[in-house]
Specification:
Elements lengths: L3 H10 L3 H25 L9 H21 L12 H5 L5 H12 L18 H7 L6 E3 L5 E3 L18 H6 L4 H12 L18 H7 L23 E2 L5 H4 L7 H14 L16 H7 L3 E2 L8 E2 L5 H5 L6 H14 L16 H7 L3 E2 L2
Parallel strand pairs: 3-4, 5-6
Antiparallel strand pairs: 1-2
Length: 365
């Protein structure tokens, strides 16, 4: 039997020189990898820390964890005088604590616990949790600290938010911020049709509203004829009315009048009275109250000539989106001018419901 090593070397000699060199290099790399693996397995890694250093680090980490567990708590505090560092340890949302500091730096002062409600981020749940811990103190004339007693939420009588003055609002628990916003809303033409409309006022939340809800009594003045105000026979044509005409309608103030005119200009005019409900935030109750006092002249609608309209002309209309405008222009480019508006129904992007709305504002002439 021949020597296997001799046979192996004879076979190696049959390879080309480059193949023999490659084989030798590969074999060397394999041997080095095996040796390195054996060495690494038998070397004990040097620890980064000694056992004593590791124990010290763990003790510091545990101390920080324990401090964090006890740091965020609730305790008696005066929001006017509590230091920033102590305020940070209160178990309150970070944004609330940040806004309290900003409010104080701007010169603001909290006279009652309820004043904290005007801080952005202080919602009902947060205030209910912290209310009993608020300790606001005032100094009397002899400079003796006196704790201000909590105001008892007990009101008597009724008030109409559409007509009462600031003194009346204050007597029913409205703070200066809430009172200012109520009066500003009225001065801008706003009207409270029902008690829940007060929740639209910035600064009035559900908790405060529920405490005064039973004392709200809104008078119906629709049937009273007042000098300078419209009577029952007064009617407004929506496509020609200006803001002076619109504010004569019950529930329409300067803000809603401006929105109606702006939306009318975007549309090109109203073809139906019910389109008022598409005006931003327009109350349905107001529409029901004025429906019999408004009318629409469709001959005043400004129509778009669909065969000559450009991309921006069509996209400007509230009833058309980008996809629909591109589809209309593509159809016109391929098929020529629209002979009848009904051809728009051949465009897949526009269904019959959308066509019924937009057809009032398009013309083939």
């Amino acid at each position: 039997m021949s020597n296997p090593f001799k046979r192996f070397f004879n076979e190696i000699n049959n390879y080309s020189r480059s193949d023999r060199n490659a084989l030798l290099i590969l074999s060397g790399l394999i041997i080095l990898a095996i040796i390195a693996n054996i060495i690494i397995r038998n070397i004990d890694p040097k620890p980064m820390y000694t056992p004593e250093e590791y124990d010290q680090m763990m003790a510091k980490w545990q101390k920080i964890v324990n401090e964090n567990k006890t740091r965020k708590t609730l305790f008696k505090f005066n929001p006017n005088t509590i230091p920033d560092s102590l305020l940070d340890s209160l178990n309150l949302p970070h944004i609330v604590k940040q806004n309290i500091i900003r409010y104080r730096k701007a010169g603001g002062k909290f006279s009652t616990p309820q004043d904290l409600r005007k801080i952005y981020g202080m919602n009902d749940s947060v205030f209910n949790a912290v209310e009993s811990y608020i300790n606001i103190e005032v100094r009397n004339k002899r400079n003796v600290k006196v704790e201000r007693p909590k105001r008892v939420k007990s009101y008597h009588g009724y008030f109409d938010p559409n007509s009462c003055d600031s003194t009346t609002l204050s007597s029913f628990g409205f703070n200066r911020f809430q009172t200012k916003n109520v009066l500003r809303y009225r001065n801008n033409g706003g009207h409270f049709s029902r008690s829940e409309d007060l929740l639209k006022i910035y600064g009035i939340d559900s908790l405060f509203f529920n405490s005064i809800k039973k004392h709200i009594k809104i008078k119906d003045t629709a049937t009273k004829a007042v000098a300078g105000l419209p009577t029952k026979s007064y009617r407004v044509e929506l496509n020609s009315a200006d803001s002076v005409d619109l504010v004569k309608l019950k529930g329409i103030g300067a803000v809603y009048a401006a929105r109606i005119i702006k939306y009318r200009n975007l549309l090109g005019g109203f073809y139906s009275k019910k389109q008022l409900l598409e005006v931003y935030n327009f109350p349905k109750e107001t529409y029901v109250n004025i429906e019999s006092k408004i009318s629409v002249d469709t001959t005043l609608i400004k129509k778009i000539r669909i065969d000559f309209a450009e991309y921006n002309d069509l996209l400007r209309h509230p009833y058309l989106n980008k996809k629909q405008v591109k589809a209309i222009l593509t159809y016109r480019d391929k098929n020529g001018a629209f002979e009848k508006l009904a051809a728009i129904l051949l465009i897949p992007e526009i269904d019959s419901v959308e066509f019924e709305k937009i057809r009032h504002y398009l013309t083939c002439r």
